[in-house]
């Protein structure tokens, strides 16, 4: 009888513990303000969808709970940092995995990644070297694209509206595609084709997967799968072309090809980088230019430092590194911690030629 009683109590405690853990209302990050999951499987994904976007969801969450908040992306706990100071405190230069990259690979149903620490560290270094080397090799290209955009803006009457988001997306697509995939994308038609497929894939990553609507709509799902196949086909052809050959223009894919990666790993890493870097570059450029053009104080500080650092000399990567982020907003600091190491170069070039 005693043995049965002990068993019954133990079983009851285990059952209560399981309920407390599995039931969404009780899954709360210890010590971190935030919200519990609304659904056991999807976490707070329904809340994100109802908010309209992840951005609006996070803005509301930080307004309610402060600069550090937690929420659930499916069954994964996510902590969001809402200020630069908090972000600085939590940067880990030795980190070998990126949750954003992991999420994208999961949504694209890619299997590579999740290897041991040494493998992840090696792939991270390959990507970092890829950004650095492609930036150095394509610096003149970035200046050229910036000058082309500036000439277009200067040709407009002062009263004409500038579709900034559209122009920044075009700038990002032209620069990123050539830095990642090479001279094939000097052809505007290739860029337009890439942009169309990119938009189809990215829109479904942002919505179709989150609310489950993609699997319910056969037409949209076919369009998504066709676009993804076309993007992958382009990447495969470029990877095949670059293997075992030397080119004067070093691109991001070259660094992956020269590393100890198989073709599938190169394809997946190139796809993730291409998808994310285009949209992030476009959005950051849009907001940075917007802030620069609406703040006279920032314009003045930037103009003074540009004169001090560059003078009448040429624009070089070495001189750009001498610019102090604190003097004209923490934008450059942001760019250095992002994988898009080339972004601040383009941005300052555009700002320099605005003649504020």
Automatic annotation (TrEMBL):
Pfam families according to UniProt: p450
Cross-referenced InterPro entries: CYP450_20A1-like (IPR052666), Cyt_P450 (IPR001128), Cyt_P450_E_grp-I (IPR002401), Cyt_P450_sf (IPR036396)
Gene3D superfamilies: Cytochrome P450 (1.10.630.10)
Coiled-coil region list: 214-241
Keyword Transmembrane included in the entry's annotation: yes
Keyword line: Coiled coil, Heme, Iron, Membrane, Metal-binding, Transmembrane, Transmembrane helix
Residue ranges crossing the lipid bilayer per the database entry: 333-354
GO cellular component terms, A-Z: membrane
Domain of life where this protein originates: Eukaryota
GO terms assigned for molecular function: heme binding; iron ion binding; monooxygenase activity; oxidoreductase activity, acting on paired donors, with incorporation or reduction of molecular oxygen
Protein family membership: Belongs to the cytochrome P450 family.
Protein name, per record: Cytochrome P450 family 20 subfamily A member 1
């Amino acid at each position: 009888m005693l043995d049965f009683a002990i068993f019954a109590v133990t079983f009851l405690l285990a059952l209560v513990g399981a309920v407390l853990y599995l039931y969404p209302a009780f899954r709360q990050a210890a010590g971190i303000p935030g919200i519990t999951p609304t659904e056991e499987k999807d976490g707070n994904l329904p809340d994100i969808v109802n908010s309209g976007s992840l951005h609006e969801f996070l803005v509301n969450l930080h307004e309610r709970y402060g600069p550090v908040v937690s929420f659930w992306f499916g069954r994964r706990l996510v902590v969001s940092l809402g200020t630069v100071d908090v972000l600085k405190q939590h940067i880990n230069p030795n980190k070998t995995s990126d949750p954003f990259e992991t999420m994208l690979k999961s949504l694209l149903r890619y299997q590579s990644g999740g290897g041991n620490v040494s493998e992840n560290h090696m792939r991270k270094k390959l990507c970092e070297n890829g950004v650095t080397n492609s930036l150095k090799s394509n610096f003149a290209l970035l200046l050229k694209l910036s000058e082309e955009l500036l000439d277009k803006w200067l040709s407009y009457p002062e009263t004409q509206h500038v579709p900034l988001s559209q122009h920044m997306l075009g700038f990002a697509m032209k620069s990123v595609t050539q830095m990642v995939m090479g001279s094939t994308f000097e052809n505007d038609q290739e860029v337009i084709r890439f942009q169309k497929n990119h938009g189809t894939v990215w829109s479904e990553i942002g919505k179709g997967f989150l609310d489950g609507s993609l699997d319910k709509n056969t037409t949209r799902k076919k369009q998504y799968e066709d676009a993804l196949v076309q993007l992958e086909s382009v990447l495969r052809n470029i990877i095949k072309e670059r293997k075992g050959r030397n080119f004067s223009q070093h691109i991001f894919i070259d660094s992956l090809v020269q590393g100890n990666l198989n073709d599938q790993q190169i394809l997946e890493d190139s796809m993730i980088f291409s998808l994310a870097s285009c949209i992030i570059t476009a959005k950051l450029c849009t907001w940075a230019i917007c802030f620069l053009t609406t703040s006279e104080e920032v314009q003045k500080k930037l103009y003074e430092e540009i004169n001090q650092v560059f003078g009448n000399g040429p624009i070089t990567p070495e001189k750009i590194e001498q610019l102090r982020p604190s003097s004209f907003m923490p934008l450059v600091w942001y760019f250095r911690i992002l994988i898009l190491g080339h972004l601040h170069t383009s941005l300052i070039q555009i700002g320099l030629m605005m003649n504020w």
